Design the sequence.
């Protein structure tokens, strides 16, 4: 097995909103693309109808992540079946029972559970979630406000906590939250994640910026 492939940091570009953005990301070398369903807040929200039109366009082997804020298994399964993504990114807290049920009903579909790193309590949350998730994504949202922030905040969280989580988990982690071409190398060196996830850090006036995409991927691959 090629050890360089194992060590390479995967790149997920989120908030896809058009065919042109998909082309930019794929041509630049993204490993995965994210499509944001209905959310209480955040960037890149396109909803199920647009997501279901864009996801089939993505060529293999690029992975497709559907971001959902649903916490009910039946609704999560229905969303995936309507949109067709090969990975579900659960951006809110979801019980082990729900994740297990989704796994049974959607064999072959990967589940990535988001843990919003707000303090040391996030370590225990990630350790628990890994039991029924294929990977953990560490982000910088806030679930305790009147309007939940479940991603797309553009904020950096405490990478020391993320590094501790990475050391303790046996499943891969993705690192998100305020990443951009200027700080992603530092983030990778600090946390050593399996992959990095970026949305607003690659955009200019809300649109995916090819120059920023190239700069980000170049920094990751240094």
Sequence:
């Amino acid at each position: 097995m090629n050890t360089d492939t194992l060590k390479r940091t995967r790149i997920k570009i989120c908030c896809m909103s058009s065919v042109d953005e998909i082309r930019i990301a794929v041509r630049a070398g993204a490993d995965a693309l994210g499509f944001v369903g209905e959310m209480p807040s955040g960037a890149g929200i396109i909803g199920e109808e647009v997501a279901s039109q864009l996801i089939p366009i993505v060529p293999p082997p690029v992975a497709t992540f559907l971001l959902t804020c649903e916490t009910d298994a039946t609704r999560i399964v229905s969303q995936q079946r309507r949109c067709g993504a090969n990975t579900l990114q659960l951006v809110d807290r979801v019980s082990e029972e729900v994740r297990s049920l989704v796994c049974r009903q959607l064999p072959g579909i990967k589940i990535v559970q988001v843990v919003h790193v707000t303090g040391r309590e996030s370590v225990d949350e990630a350790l628990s979630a890994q039991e029924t998730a294929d990977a953990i994504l560490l982000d910088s949202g806030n679930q305790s406000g009147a309007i939940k922030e479940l991603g797309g905040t553009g904020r950096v969280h405490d990478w020391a906590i993320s590094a501790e989580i990475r050391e303790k988990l046996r499943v891969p982690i993705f690192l998100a939250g305020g990443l951009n071409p200027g700080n992603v190398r530092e983030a990778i060196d600090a946390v050593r994640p399996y992959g990095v996830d970026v949305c607003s850090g690659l955009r200019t006036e809300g649109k995916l910026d090819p120059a920023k995409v190239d700069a980000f991927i170049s920094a990751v691959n240094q």
The CA atoms of residues 137 and 174 lie 5 Å apart. The domain at 3-220 is CATH 3.20.20.70 (TIM Barrel). The longest strand covers residues 110-116.
